[in-house]
Amino acid sequence: MTNHSTKTTGSKKTTGSKPAARRQRRSRRGVGLGLRDFPTFKAVSYLVFAFLYLPLVFVVAYSFNSNRVVSVWRGFTFSWYSEVLGNDDIQRALFNSLRIGVVATVVSVVLATGLAIGLLTMARAGRTFAWTLIGAPLIIPEIVFAIGTLALFVQSRIPLGVNAITLAHIAFCVPFALLPIRARLRGVDPAVYEAAADLGAGEFTIFRRMTLPLLAPGIVAGALLAFIISLDDFIVSYFLAGPGGTTLPVYIFGMIRNAVTPGVNALSTLMLVASILIVSLSYLLARKRR
Amino acid sequence: MKAPWSATARQRRQAGQGSWWSGLPGVVYLIALVLLPLILIFIYSFLSRAKLGVGVKWQFTLTPYTELLYSESLSGGRSFDPTYLQIIANSFWYAIITSVVCLALSIPIAMWLATRPPERRTALVFAVTIPFWTSLLIRTYSFIIILNDNGPINGFLKGIGIIDEPIAMLYTPFATVVGLVYTFLPFMILPIYASAERFDFRLAEAAYDLGAAKWTVLRRVVLPSIRPGIIAGMVLVFIPALGSYLAPELLGGGKTSMIANVIAAQFGASRNWPFGAALSVLLLVITLLVLVVFAVVAKRASRAAGRGGWEALI
Amino acid sequence: MDASASALSVRDVTKTFHTPEGGLVHALDSVSLDIAEGSFMVLLGPSGCGKTTLLRCIAGLESPDSGQIALRGQRIDDMPVWRRRVNTVFQSYALFPHMTVAQNIAFGLQMDKVPGDIIKVKVEESLDMVHLSGLGSRKPSQLSGGQQQRVALARALAKEPEVLLLDEPLSALDLKLRRGMQSELKRLQRETSITFVLVTHDQDEAMAMGDQVAVFNAGRIVQVGEPREVYLRPRSRFVADFIGEANVLTGVLDTFGLVVESLGLVPRDRLIADTDAASGRVHVAVRPENVSLQIDPVGTAKVTDVSYVGGDMRVEALASAVSIVSRVPSQGVQPPRIGDRVSISFAEGSLTVVAD
Questions:
Q1: E strand or H helix at C188, and its extent?
Q2: Which residue positions does the secretion signal occupy (chain C) (predicted)?
Q3: Which CATH number characterizes residue C187's domain?
Q4: Residues C221, C255 within the same domain
Q5: Interface touch A197/C82, C-beta < 8 Å
Q6: Which of A224, C7, C40, C297 could pair covalently with C211 via S-S, beta carbons 3.0-4.6 A apart?
């Protein structure tokens, strides 16, 4: 999601200065020159990558453990997966999660697309206000957002459950949906719209035949991000779930609280795989050149 | 050639790019579901506790705020009670440790990433972001597996004979901090990387050329240049760490509550919504103050950053 | 010129922009211009002079604050962009990146509700016309800059506009390609006999392509005419300097001729005939190729620089405070050396009086 143009200029600089650095490295002092080969940097980097991925690897590995005691390895089994997938409560939670995720994604993407376009022509004050609202769910503590929406729903007598969770998810899915759409929009030469108008297209035709198809990859990337964010959310869903609104993360939390069985690992592994697949897809789409 | 001012908003509107009102539904929605809840929380923090515990009684009072410092005994007398102050202090302490550890780990990896060949760089940066996109709950949970008495770490240490009895790591402040660091590390790495990537490595070469040693170059040329990234990273780690709920809840084992856990308890078991709201207001105010402080520092830093690199050499 | 005979007539068009600092800039200051049917008009001027703004006003991408624009006698200034029978080739080409070349060309025709089978034929014809047959299924990103340029042209021409507007269409091409496209554009204009209006800041391009050239400066048209006329008889110092190279001299004009400080008397017949009206203190412009320098030990000027530009020799000489540039074919001439004394003479009818 970083800006492509700065990326390329940055890379040019480093590659450009590379041969020079090599030459000097050999000639001067005999000590390694340049920050490229600070030995500590490399070692720490490898450690950080291990730190980032090992916990996830353990979750996946132990999901195949036949021992009931989660972290003592006994043997390989798939049985936890069949147990988890056959559980009615889990199926219901999965269905809730998917339903919330799909609706929240669709609505937040529509809102975000409108915002991305609207932000271009908004007056300065309006733009600042809109950005504050969009950024707020990212900066205010999630717990505050959770109890705030809880208070709102209780106050306005909106019943807790799947619908309440969906309404809240939409709010914090908007910024995630917005970023790739906006990146895409900024990459479009505005003259393209002018050319379309010049060739006889009216406002609506321009939107349908230029804006939408040009933004499509960004919209899909944004939708995927919004979907993961909704799917993975725990805290807000936990407070708004009510009796019938248990989502997958809320269910997993209950499992962790009661007794950790390898079933948690199996379920977690499935969610990890889903998240990683979706984010990778989004990443590939966002990178795709026209 | 077009004059620079010709790209005005007015001209763009004519170009068939849609107009500002298409952003209206989004703005209205966010007002309803972001701004309104915050306003409601603020109002709640000045109301009385409901009899049954769910919701509030619409009667003005300052009790939720006095409850931060005093506890009320059954007889009605008030006495100073540092419990919540202690929790707030703890929260700050954990957030500070988390930020510092993240910073220490992030500078090397950000510099390392920024010096990779461009094709590999994008993939590596993406690899840094992947854990962020996985469920926070599962990420936090994974440390229950790793840190528990029978977990891989204790197993490994026992296996090589360093310890006989497992080290109790889970349900300690240590576990909480590890969980926090793990959760927020990408937020520190990415902005520092973004700064490091823009760093002109010829500056470092110039410094070497003028006779500076490696660590001097790092300290006096590189660090000042990536300061904006460091400041952004500190904001992005410190603020959410301060308001964390899951890591202390799952890994701290109730022994290391942070503000968020107390807030959650007021809306759950303790059934004191106004007090929970007051704590939320406090947390929001602290968050805003921290943002303002960092914004001031950042302004000064970015002003210095322009000259920084060269000034350090002279 | 009679407005009804012109394809496009611009009357007193004014357009101001607000700068971010709150100031006002007159991008167009009461500009009037008539463009003859089937002609190739070039709007020439330095950047920021208003020529692109005028083009955008004609296209409808910008609306003028006041004034009238008429296409074949019919007012179009309050017509929306998409209804004007005028099409534009954009500086950045503005090809639709998500459409193939053929779809790009078809787009404008679809907007006119042309039946599908006719569109197909027209797209083929258009591709043929710009020598791109067979590339219809490519995406713009798979084409070279020159090819993209041709697609942009084909797309605009496919609609058979009454006037084709070209906004610095060649500025993104390298020099060699630009030369080729210049003659290509002239050919297309002749073949289609559509009125072309081209904006450029490149005076060579303007000279090479235009039937008529309108020179802009600071939001006004300072001179309109055929390229040769504008070149040889610039009306102002700005035009003389902006187009080609010019020596601008200051002197006093009377019936005998022009007395130029440190050059002496320039006979009356060296001046263009119809400058009779002017007298007194004037500025005159003369092109370097109309200046000759003869080596002369008692000459008034001293050579300060000699260089070769293409097949020409360019000599700079200084006569006390006045610097003079001469340009002559280098073949068969004894080249002067720096420091040589020379005498200066001008070709007959080569000096023209210019406004300051």
A1: helix C175-192
A2: none
A3: 3.40.50.300
A4: no
A5: yes
A6: C40
Residue C170: how many CB atoms within 10 A of its CB? 25
Q: Is A280 left (phi over 0), alpha (psi -120 to 50) or beta?
A: alpha
Which residues in chain A show pLDDT less than 70? 1-38, 70-71, 288-290
Domain co-membership, C67 together with C95: yes
What's the gap in Å between the CA of B80 and the closest CA on chain A? 26
Give residue C149's domain range: 3-232
Domain ranges (residues) in chain B: 82-308
For residue B269, the tally of other CB atoms under 10 A from its CB is: 9
DSSP annotation of C310 reads T
Q: Considering the domain boundaries, does residue C240 fall inside one?
A: no
Q: Do C266 and C326 share a structural domain?
A: yes
Distance from CA of B8 to the nearest CA of C (A): 9
Please name the fold of domain B82-308.
MetI-like fold (1.10.3720)
Bridge-based pairing state of the strands C352-354 and C163-167: unpaired
Task: Supply the pLDDT for residue A29.
Answer: 35
Flag if C25 and B8 touch (Cβ within 8 Å).
no
Which chains form contacts with chain A, at 3 or more CB pairs under 8 Å?
A: B, C
Q: What is the pLDDT of residues C166-197, one digit of tens each?
A: 999 988 888 888 888 999 999 999 999 999 99
Asked if residue C239 is part of any domain, the answer here is no
Domain boundaries, chain A: 1-37, 82-288
Q: Give the residues of chain C that fall short of pLDDT 50.
A: 1-4
Q: Which of C232, C258, C286 is the last residue of a domain?
A: C232
How do residues C224-254 score in pLDDT, each as one tens digit? 999 999 998 999 999 999 998 899 988 888 8
Domain end residue (candidates: C179, C209, C232): C232
B201 touches A13 (CB < 8 A): yes
Residue C153 shares a structural domain with residue C208: yes
Q: How far does the CA of residue B10 sit from the closest CA of chain C (Å)?
A: 9
Q: Is residue C45 situated within a structural domain?
A: yes
A82-288 maps to CATH 1.10.3720.10? yes
Taking residue B209's Cβ as centre, other Cβ atoms within 10 Å add up to: 12
Residue-wise pLDDT for B150-164, tens only, equals 888 888 888 888 888
8 Å CB contact between B169 and B255:
no
Q: Please, which chains are in contact with B (at least 3 CB pairs closer than 8 A)? A: A, C
Task: DSSP for chain A, please give it.
Answer: ---HHHHHHHHHHHHHHHHHHHHHHHHSSSS--SGGG-HHHHHHHHHHHHHHHHHHHHHHHHTTB--SSTTS---B-SHHHHHHHH-HHHHHHHHHHHHHHHHHHHHHHHHHHHHHHHHHHS-HHHHHHHHHHHHHHHHS-HHHHHHHHHHHHHHTTPPPSHHHHHHHHHHHHHHHHHHHHHHHHHTS-THHHHHHHHTT--HHHHIIIIIHHHHHHHHHHHHHHHHHHHHH--HHHHHH-TTT---HHHHHHHHHHH---HHHHHHHHHHHHHHHHHHHHHHHHHH---
Using CB atoms within 10 Å of the CB of residue A127, give its burial: 0 to 12 exposed, 13 to 18 middle, 19+ buried. middle
The answer to whether C139 touches C129, Cβ cutoff 8 Å, is no
* Residue in A closest to B212 by C-alpha: A33
Look up the pTM and report it.
0.82
Identify whether C33 is part of a domain.
Answer: yes
Which residues in chain A have their CB less than 8 angstroms from residue C61's CB?
194, 197-198
Assess whether C85 and C178 both reside in one domain: yes
